[in-house]
Design goal:
Blueprint (H helix, E strand, L loop, with lengths): L5 H62 L1
Length: 68
């Protein structure tokens, strides 16, 4: 194996730095995607709850009309 020269040490340092920045960027990207997915899921459940509430109100109105 060849001895490490200054040039190869600098190349290894920059390559390591590049990999670190790339991995950190991937982590940030997936963190943002996960956060938006959680927000979308929460909004979807809120919408589902709203629709279930509206359906129960319609059913109550229909039942009230049947009583008359």
């Amino acid at each position: 194996m060849k001895p490490l020269t200054d040039k190869t040490v600098k190349q290894l340092i920059f390559f390591n730095l590049f990999l670190s920045v790339a991995l950190f960027g991937c982590f940030l990207y997936f963190a943002v995607v996960f956060k938006r997915g959680m927000e979308w899921n929460r909004d979807l459940h809120n919408r589902q709850d709203q629709l279930e509430y509206e359906l129960s109100m319609v059913k109550a109105r229909v039942d009230g009309n049947k009583m008359r």
